Each structure stands twice: as C-alpha cells, then as structure tokens.
From TrEMBL:
GO terms for molecular function: oxidoreductase activity. Keywords: Oxidoreductase. One of its GO terms (cellular component) is cytoplasm. The keyword Oxidoreductase applies. This is FAD-binding oxidoreductase.
Length: 427
C-alpha cells in the first residue's frame, strides 16, 4: 500500500514526535466518519468528541499532510472576502451572523492550544501592510468594519510606525491586529490530532476514502476497509480530487509556495521583525512572512492556478523576499515547498450538506487557518441539530468557474494578472 510522506518542509523537519498511526484494515462502525485530517477534519472531530459523538477520521496520507501542515502559519481573522462584500451578496441579516463569527476561529485556536497544551510556538500579533494609498484606505475602512462587529484589538499604522515593526521600506502604512498572530501549523495539527485521540477518536493514516456509498446508512470505502457511519464530513479540501463530483465543479485547487531561510541569529531576526509579528501585504497576489522559533524567515507568496508544482520554488519566491528585505541577499534557503489551497469564484467558503447525512466545508480560498477551526464548530453544531450558523454559511451562493474544468485555469490566471496589475499601478 502507498505510504505518502510529508513534503520536505521546515515544518516536517521540526515536527513534534508522534505515534505511528495504522491504516484501516477491515470494517468499522462509528457515529461520524471524517474524510481528511487537516484543521477542518480535526476541529470537527474535537467538537464532536467533546459532545459525546464517536468519531473516526480517514486520512489519505498523514495528519496535516495538506495545507494545514504547510501553510504560512498566520492567524488571520475574518474571511478571504470581508463582511462588507458578504453583506452586499447575501443581505444584512445573514451578514450580521457571519460577521459575528468572523473572529471566532482565532479564539478557538487559542482555547485549543491552552486546553490541550499544544506546543506550536503560538505568538500574538499580525500586520497587514499597505503598499499604496488605495490599500491604506481599504485598511481604514476594514478597521471600521471589524469594529462594528466588536473586534477592537486593531491599530492603524502610518509609515513611521510600521517601520518600527517591520524593516521593509516598501510600505506606506498598515494595520496591526493583536488578535492575529502565528503558529507552527503542522505542530498545531499534530497537537489537535493527539487531543482527538485523547478523547477516544480514531485516526487512520495512509487511508484514502476512495468511494462514498450514499444513502440512509452511508459507507466510506477505503483500499482495505470501510467505515459505516451515521454522518460523513468531507474535509479533503484541495486534495479531495473528484471524490464528490458536485463539489469539484465550483472550486479549483491552487498552489502557493513557501521558502525558509537558514537560522538568521537573534540580532538579524530582531532587526527584521522586532516584535515577532507576522506580516502579509495587501496585494491581490500577496506576500506573507514571519519568523520561526529558531529565528528563520518563512516567506510565502505567489499562486499557481490549477496547483501544478513549480520546478524551482526558490527561483520564484526568493526574489520576492529580497525585494522586501535586500539585506538577506547572502542568506541561504534551507527549505522550499508548495501546498494547495482551494479557491472558489466568490473566495467565500463552500459549505453544505448532500442528502441528509453528508456534510462538507472547503474552499476558504487562501485564508483558512482561523476559518477551518470555526468550520469544525459550525459543522458539529449542525450535526447536533443546531443549524442556524451552518445555514448562514450554506446559504452563500457559489458558481462554477468560467470556462469549466478545461479553461478555468487560464481564465483565472488572466483575472489574477489583471488584479495584480491594478495593485502595481496603485488603482
Ligand atoms: C502554502 C500555503 C500557505 C498558506 N498560508 C496560510 C496562512 O498563513 N494563513 C491562513 O489563514 N491560511 C493559509 N493557507 C490556507 C490554509 O492552510 C488552509 O485554508 C487550511 O489549512 C485548509 O485546511 P483543511 O483541513 O480544510 O484542508 P487540508 O489541510 O488541505 O487537509 C485536507 C486533508 O484531507 C486529506 N484528504 C484529501 N482527500 C482525501 C481522501 N479522499 N481520503 C482521505 N483523506 C483525504 C488530505 O490528505 C489532507 O490531509 C495556506 C495554504 C497553503 C497551501
């Protein structure tokens, strides 16, 4: 049977030790079978277990193999499209409910880390950096918008102030969110998996779901076994493939790449990011970066539509890093990897139910560390019969990509080129 390892990332190299987890052999029965052990699956499992459900997770590779174990580690609040866009799309009542939830994911992460004593280098403080006055104007209205929903740990920064928190001369200002922050993403997933097991949940690794038998008593088929369950949660996100064809039509896997420098040493690291905040800029195709606990710089950016793996990641990302920090020109890159996130046309999450008992949440389009933790809670509530918050997400409209499966990649790349050109020209 296939044994899919982690990609050769900094995170895999610095992962906390974990017990071996067997593949599923034979037939088992449970209340909820979850497909995928990323944050969506693990967060759902934890909320369900805490509420008395029996849970089994089948994971095609290893816990945190997907985006959850490869991401920039940035705890970013709200959604990939903000609450004002949601308001224009679905009206004030539903937007009010979604707005109230927009800052919950970050709180869930902090609660989990504290409750289960998860060692994942959690740090507070995230910066949104503006490169143009238009972006600064957007941050000003974002602050007003977020404050309307009770989120008030925010500080607007002018050019002088942002220079105190990040040694990059390109920014004209920014916004600091002290309830943002950063984590070692794989160690967060591994800690959550250990918490799942401590509550009696079972995780089968190297166990892809190859078919879902739908009906009143659904069954998840795997290469050497099957899971009979009352409910199924599909949490495979960008790595799901075509297991659930109706989901694939309205979403597109995209790759984004990350590099990690050699350790910079305390002094150099402190000159780049003196308070150890994480940073993302406000471009459509954004750059994001932060320090690790051993004082390396992790830098990510760029999007490959259709999720083809680029041949030379360092050649794509290093120039972006040097544009932000020319002082790193002699620094060696120790790790480079790619990971897939799932894009929807609206850039809002795709949430819903198929029949009575198959639930899904996916497609948070790049900003998913906080949303996926919230999604687990909202899915668990729905399975317990409290579906008001689930329905607010499920009511978000979704559309197939223009050009269908054949042309969605070039069409989206043209769209992204247009938006990045607007960013570069500052309008
Ligand atoms: C490189 C990168 C950087 C990012 N940086 C950030 C960031 O800094 N901040 C932020 O907020 N968001 C970021 N994101 C997005 C964020 O990581 C994701 O939104 C989030 O982790 C998605 O979690 P998930 O559990 O839904 O999916 P995943 O973590 O991708 O998990 C899905 C899991 O399902 C498994 N699976 C798939 N199909 C099957 C099957 N048939 N059977 C069994 N298992 C299956 C996969 O193996 C995988 O482990 C980034 C994403 C990437 C790729």
């Amino acid at each position: 049977m296939a044994n899919t390892p982690y990609p050769q990332s900094y995170y895999a190299a610095s992962a906390n030790p974990v017990p071996p987890r067997p593949a599923l052999q034979g037939e088992v029965e449970t209340d909820v079978c979850i497909i995928g052990a990323g944050y969506t699956g693990l967060s759902s499992a934890l909320f369900l277990l805490e509420n008395g459900f029996k849970v089994s997770i089948v994971e095609a590779a290893k816990v945190g193999f997907g985006a959850s174990g490869r991401n920039g580690g940035q705890i970013v609040n709200s959604y990939s499209r903000d609450i004002d866009v949601i308001e224009r799309t679905v009206g004030p009542k539903q937007a009010q409910l979604l707005g109230q939830m927009a800052f919950e994911g970050g709180r869930i992460i902090r609660e989990r880390v504290a409750k289960y004593d998860i060692q994942c280098d959690l740090k507070d403080g995230g910066v949104f950096a503006a490169l143009t006055s238009k972006q600064m104007g957007h941050l000003e209205s974002q602050k007003r918008l977020w404050e309307r929903f009770g989120h008030n740990q925010l500080e607007l920064m002018d050019q002088k102030r942002i220079r105190e928190v990040v040694a990059c001369d390109s920014y004209i200002g920014g916004m600091l969110d002290m309830s943002g922050g950063h984590i070692h993403p794989l160690n967060l997933a591994l800690g959550e998996a250990a918490a799942v097991e401590s509550l009696g949940g079972i995780i089968y690794e190297q166990t892809p779901a190859v078919r879902i038998e739908r009906g009143a008593n659904p069954v998840v088929h795997t290469p050497q076994g099957k899971v009979r369950a009352k409910f199924i949660i599909v949490a495979g996100n960008a790595y799901l493939g075509n297991l659930v064809p109706e989901l694939a039509a309205k979403s597109m896997p995209c790759g984004t790449q990350v590099i990690t420098t050699e350790p910079l040493g305390e002094e150099l690291a402190r000159t780049l990011l003196p308070q150890d905040y994480c940073v993302e800029d406000c471009n459509y195709l954004l750059d994001y970066y932060r320090l690790t606990s051993d004082k390396r710089l992790i830098f990510g950016g760029g999007v490959v539509y259709g999720a083809r793996d680029p041949a030379n990641i360092e050649a794509i990302i290093r120039p972006k890093m040097l544009k932000a920090f020319p002082q790193l020109k002699d620094v060696k890159i120790d790790y480079a990897w790619t990971g897939n996130f799932l894009l929807t046309l609206s850039r809002l999450p795709q949430v819903g139910r198929i029949g009575d008992n198959i639930y899904y949440s996916q497609g948070c389009s790049g900003h998913g560390v906080t949303y996926t933790h919230l999604a687990g809670k909202v899915l668990a509530e729905a399975l317990r019969g409290q579906a008001e918050r689930f329905d607010a997400f499920a009511g978000l409209p979704h559309y197939p990509f223009p050009g269908g499966q054949m042309l969605r990649v070039p069409f989206s790349a043209i769209g992204a080129w247009y938006y990045s050109l607007r960013d570069r020209l500052g309008f």
